[in-house]
Amino acid sequence: MDSIPLSTLFITLIILLIASAYFSGSETGLLSANRYRMRFLSEKGHKGAQKAEKLLKKTDILLSLILICNNLVNISASAIATIIGMRLYGDIGVAIATGVLTFVMLIFSEIFPKTIAAIYPERVAFVSSHLLTILLKLFSPIVFVMNLIIRSLMKIVGVKNEVKGNSLSTEELRAIVNQSGKFIPSAHQEMLLSILDLEKVTVDDIMVPRNDIGGIDIEDDWKSIMRQLNHAAHSKVVLYKESMDENVLGILRVREAFRLMLDKNEFTKETLIRAVDEAYFIPEGTPLNAQLLNFRSRKERIGLVVDEYGDIKGLVTLEDILEEIVGEFTTSTAPSINEEVTPQSDGSMIIEGSANIRDLNKLFDWHLDTEDARTFNGLILEHLEEIPDEGTECEIDGLKITILEVADNMVKQAKVEKLPPANEQN
């Protein structure tokens, strides 16, 4: 070593420091890179992304390789720095070399390259993957032995060698969509979030209640049937005999009934029965994401929701589920939540009893319970445990509710006022 010129030692030391910076930056870049963008670029044929993805499939081997190389470089740099220090300052040069090298390596071989790699992880990862792939082949025997020792130690201390996959949970996907900013328009963000919410919403939450289902009893007199067809609010109605719960004949398309009207000789109760489509029944509690797939697989667009006893609870259409994703269609005949809420000048609001609780929660950021009731009327009746008289007042989740109209054993309208927090009331 004494015969090697100082200039050569300094050049070697600088090369080793650069190599140390390379390995430090490569580690941070590869581990910080976006795995999903990397996979996308890899599928597009990006060579750096392909090699980086291959290296990251075995993270333990990659880390072993980087740490082995980095430690070899750092130890070599420390030895050369010691020689330089002794040549320049004698025995005290060892201490000087140690202090200076520690500072230089900390700044230029650790903090600086890792900061750059954290800011530009993909650039660093894709570039460094080319050399790391070559080094992995050269050091594969050493890496294999090191991994064998590490796995043995992990087994002794009871740590399982399991690497978590790259799959994302629903909440993680939600966070990604919320943070997408300008890359995804706000309207598209809302639709994506609505799709993620489908598994939390059941058919019970969006179905048309039993009382609002358009139905025709085939046992009614002919004039009554004709009148109901002419005034049908929906394009399809339920055709039943005597009881909708016990004897549903099927779903009648009103347009088909009008077509049959053109031929008066064939327009009879029997032809109406033959013209119906078979009824499709949906168990209550079915999540919307599952029902959407069921509609697609069965080529259905409408279904009757039934409870465990087979009694009909409501009706759900494909359009109802799609509205949960994209918002209400302008062609819908059902009143929107904005039509069921009337703001008042004093800050209160008049709410229809038929208003959906989930829609109210979304509109006003309330937290009304949706477990036992679906409509605002149901929530009030569940709370009071009786059918109230007009003028009755109650308090539910910080809301003062005054009953304005009661008819047909239902709360038709109620006035709602937001109460101040308890500490402000005092």
TrEMBL record:
Query: Which SMART domains does its entry note?
Result: CorC_HlyC
Please report which protein family the annotation says this sequence is part of. Answer: Belongs to the UPF0053 family.
Domain CNNM transmembrane residues, every copy: 2-190
Pfam families assigned: CBS, CNNM, CorC_HlyC
MF terms (GO), sorted A to Z: flavin adenine dinucleotide binding
**Which protein is depicted?**
Magnesium/cobalt efflux protein
Q: How does it sit in the membrane?
A: Multi-pass membrane protein
User: What cellular component terms from Gene Ontology apply here?
Assistant: plasma membrane
Q: Which PROSITE patterns match?
A: CBS, CNNM
User: In what residue span(s) does the CBS domain sit?
Assistant: 272-332
Q: Which residues cross the membrane?
A: 6-25, 61-86, 92-112, 124-150
What domain of life does the native source organism fall in? Answer: Bacteria
Record-linked InterPro entries: CBS_dom (IPR000644), CBS_dom_sf (IPR046342), CNNM (IPR002550), FAD-bd_PCMH-like_sf (IPR036318), FAD-bd_PCMH_sub2 (IPR016169), Ion_transp-like_CBS (IPR044751), Transptr-assoc_dom (IPR005170)
UniProt entry keywords in alphabetical sequence: CBS domain, Cell membrane, Membrane, Repeat, Transmembrane, Transmembrane helix
Lineage, highest ranks first: Bacteria, Pseudomonadati, Pseudomonadota, Gammaproteobacteria, Pasteurellales
Q: Where would you find this protein in the cell? A: Cell membrane
